[in-house]
Amino acid sequence: MEALQITWFILWALLWAVYFVLDGFDLGIGSLLPFMADNEEERRIMYNAAGPFWDGNEVWLISAGGVTFAAFPKVYAVMFSALYAPLLALLFALIFRAVSFEFRNKVDSPAWRGLWDLVHFISNLVPCLLLGVAFANLFMGIPVDAQGVYHGNLVALLNPYGLAGGIFFLCIFCLHGSLWLAIKSTGALKQRAIAASCLFWPIVLILLVAFLVLTAFYTNLLDNYLSAPALLLLPIVALVGLLGARLMLSKGKLWLAWGCSALFIIGVTFFGVMGMFPGMIISSMDPAATLTAFNASSSEKTLKIMLTVALIMVPIVLLYQIWVYKLFSHELTAEHLEDDHAY
How many domains is the chain partitioned into structurally? Predict the structure, then answer.
């Protein structure tokens, strides 16, 4: 039973990491929209750089939430209760993001398009910040009692460490998104995307160091790394990914740079989640009220059935998404915008 619980804890972390990697570049591109595009054609290029992927990428968010519900129902109940306000804001932001993709070109009016560009920008910016705030608070611990009742409010989540997490996530996704935009665009927009990547890289590096210092001060995540030095491989992987992104960017190997950025995101995610282990909802009020992978999981039979389904279905989904990414791997030009399916 314990092996199953550990397996599902790792899968839970992996699903969040995959979501951050895939939807992260969509969110990053949307957050950069007002600052990168100089004209209508470039704005449409930015929309279509995420266009074939954004809805499929959100499947991983649903999967992460579904796994939390099925494998760790107590964690799901407390998480979606304690973090109700930010998660509801996240949900509405993602809804409006979807609407902005579909509605922007329904009316041939600059004012109409400008309105939905603003909606698109906000509905991408807000999830970047909220995801960082939410996970930083989970790393630090939230005030929940033994009954799972949250003794706090939205303002309490906006503490220095939570805000640092929000800014960190935003900059990570902007770096990730600018690399993807550099891959998908041409001409002046491509050069601006590369310049944005070069700008965000040192910012992310500085924020990484600052976040690690704050993590040592506000959380107990480093305890696991001191007791199990093998886990230090995770932050090393993250650092290698970040350094590799800059190296590949300097060599003009944009796909490899984006891949290294993805490795960095995976390393950062696992660094935080494995630092919590076995905790999943850490109580800052009473350590005994902390929900862990061992005291909050479903039954052994449920975990076995789910594992069987996951081993069958997840590879199928991955193969489908690999095919989609390969199919739409080409650079976007003005000719592609003439397609009836273009945004």
Answer: 1
